[in-house]
Design a protein that fits this description.
This protein is α+β, with helices and mostly antiparallel strands. The chain is about 30% helix and about 20% strand. It contains 19 helices and 24 strands. A hairpin with a 6-residue loop joins strand 16 and strand 17. Helix 11 packs across helix 12. The protein is globular.
Length: about 650
Amino acid sequence: MNNFDPSQLSRRQWMQFAAIAASFPVATAWGKAITTDNDDDDETEDDDARYRTKLDTNLIGDHTNVGGLEPVVLEGVGLVRSLAGTGGDPAPSQYRTALLEDLKKDGYKNPHSILSSPNTALVIVRAYLRPMIRKGERLDVEITVPSNAAVSSLVGGELLEVRLSDKAIVDGKLMAGHTYAIARGPVLTAGLGASTVKEPALLKQGRVLSGAVVLKERDLTLNLKRDFISVRNAKRVSEAIGRRFHDFDEYGIKKTLATPKTDQKIVLRVHPSYKENPARYLQVIRHMAFTETPVELRVRMARLKHDLCIPKTANASALQLEAIGQDGIPILKHGLTSPTIECRFHSAVSLAYLGETAGLVHLVECAKKERAFRRYALDAIATMEDADAHIALKGLMSEPSDETRYGAFRALWTLDRTDPFIRGEILGVREEDERRDNEYKLYVLKTEGPPMVHVTLRTRPEIVLFGAEQEFTPPLYLSAGKHIMVTAQPGSDKVQLARFEVGKMDQRKEVSLRVADVIRAANELGATYPDVLQLLADASRQKNLPTAIAVEKIPLAGRAYYRPESKDTPSDARKIRIGRESNEQNEFPGFGQSDEGERKKPESVGGRSNGSLASVPTESSDDSDDTETSPSDAKKKKKSGANKKDEKSKSSWKWFGGNK
C-alpha cells in the first residue's frame, strides 16, 4: 500500500476530509450515550441522558408526589359563656376532666361552679389547618355540644380561649399533640333566624368565624417517587423550581422557595404571586421540565403553541407555558386569538399569573358567560395590579348574577382592599376587647342592578349591601340578640332600637329605614355579628327586606363545562370538569371532598354545601343552582322550573350537618 501524502490532496479533497473528521466527535458522543444508557453501574453519568427531554418532556410531576394536601384536624374542649339559662352542668366524662384541668391552669378559682352554671356550656371545638397556612392567619372554628349534655341552645354565647392541637392514638390512648392554634369569640349558631321547634339540635352547634389564630406554619412537600429517590435528584428538582420561583428576604437577599430536606423530601413555600391560590402554584410546579437543553425547550414550545389552540390540550399547554415563564408569554398571547372560549380562557389565566393583562377582556367574558370558568377567571383578575382590573371588577358587581357580583367583590378585596369603592366599616370593636374577637365588617356598595344583602357564614364575618339606599319595609318587630329590640310602626319612616338588660340602664336609638343605618345603630348598642345576622335573617323571613337575603354566593370550583359540538368532539367527550372541588383559592377558602369524577350532592338548595341560615329564605338565581346539565337540557329545565321558583326560594337546609 502506498503511503498517504497529505500534500497530494486537492482543496476539494481537504474539505471532504475535514467534514468526515468533524463527524467523529458526534458519532463518538452518540456511541457513548448508547453505552451509558445501558450501563446500570454508571448512574451519575447517565442521569442527564436518562431524564433529559427527547420526544416527550420529563416534567417534575412525573417524578414527584405532593404531600400535606389534606387538612390537619385540630381539636380541643372549650367553654361557652353568656348563655341565657340554656347551658347546664356537663356529665362526668373525659371532656369534663380535661376542661376542669384547663380552667385551673388558666387561673379560675372555682371551676366546678363555673361548669355547673346554667349560663355556661361545655363544647367540643374543632378547626381544620389547611396547607401552606402562615403564622398569624385565622381559621373558622366549629363548635358542638356533646350528645349527653343538658344544653338546649348556644345562642348568644361566647367561646372562652381554648388551645387546639392535633390528636394521636398512643398505646390505645388518645393523646394531644402540638398546639397549632388558639380559638375564642362569639358563637354563630346554625339555627339563627329559624323556627327550631322541629330541629332543636341546630341550636347546639355553631361556628366562630375566623376565631382561631394560627401559631405554627404548615408547608407542603414534594416527595420523590421510589425509582427517582436520590440526593442528587432532590437537589436538581429544587434548583429547577428555584430558577423559576424565588423570593427576597427583608434584606433584599434572594432566597429559594424549594428546600431539599432529605433524598426524598423537598419543602415548598408559596410564591407571592400565588399566595391566594396555592393549588395553582402546585400545578405549575408539577408542569415544569425536570431537565432540558435550550434546543429541546424550543422544540417543546413549538409543540405547545400548536396544542394551546386545541381544547383538549389547552389547559396542560397553558400550565407548561406558565411554568416556562416570560418566554412563554408570546405563545400565550397567540392563544388569545383562538376562536374557542376554552382556549382563550386557559391562555388568559396563565398570562394573568405571569403579570400580563392582555387577557383581561377574555377573563371578564368568561366570568359573565361561562359559570364553569367563573371561579378561576375572577381569581386570575385578582392577581392583576392594574387600573383596568379594578374597573372590570367594579363593572362585574352590577351583573344580574348574584355569584358573579359577590365573586367580583371578593376578587377586588383580594386585589386591593383599600379601594375606595369597597372600603368597609369596622364594627363590633369594644374597648374591653383587646383582641378584637367581635370585629366584623359592613360594606355599602353603590352598585347598579337589583339590590342584594349578602352575609357570610365562614372565613370572614362581613355584610355586603349591593345598593347603598336599601331600606326596610315596615312594620318591623325584630330582635338583634338577647337584649336589642328593633321596631317600626306601619307607614313610619323611622326605626326605633332599644337595648334592655337587667342591672343596666336602657339605651335607645332612632334612625332611618336604611338597612345600613339600622346595622350601625345596632352595633352601637352592642350587637355582635351573630346578633346582626339574626336581625337580617328574621327580616328576610318576614319580607321586611327589599330582597331575600343572599348567603355564601361564591362561584364554585370543579363545575362541568360542555364543549361546543363539532366533528372532532364526540358527544360523549363534550362534558369536562374545570378544575377540582379541592382546588379552593384563599379568597374562596374551603375544603372539597372529591378529586375528579362525580361530585357529591350536598343537602342544600342552590348547590351550596358551604352552609346557610337554617329555614331562612335565600335569594335563588338560575346560576346558583349547581346541577350539571348540558345547554340543550338547560332550556327544558328553565321552562319546567318556572312554576317552582317561588317554592325553591323558600326552601331551607342546614349549614352545619354533613358535608365538610
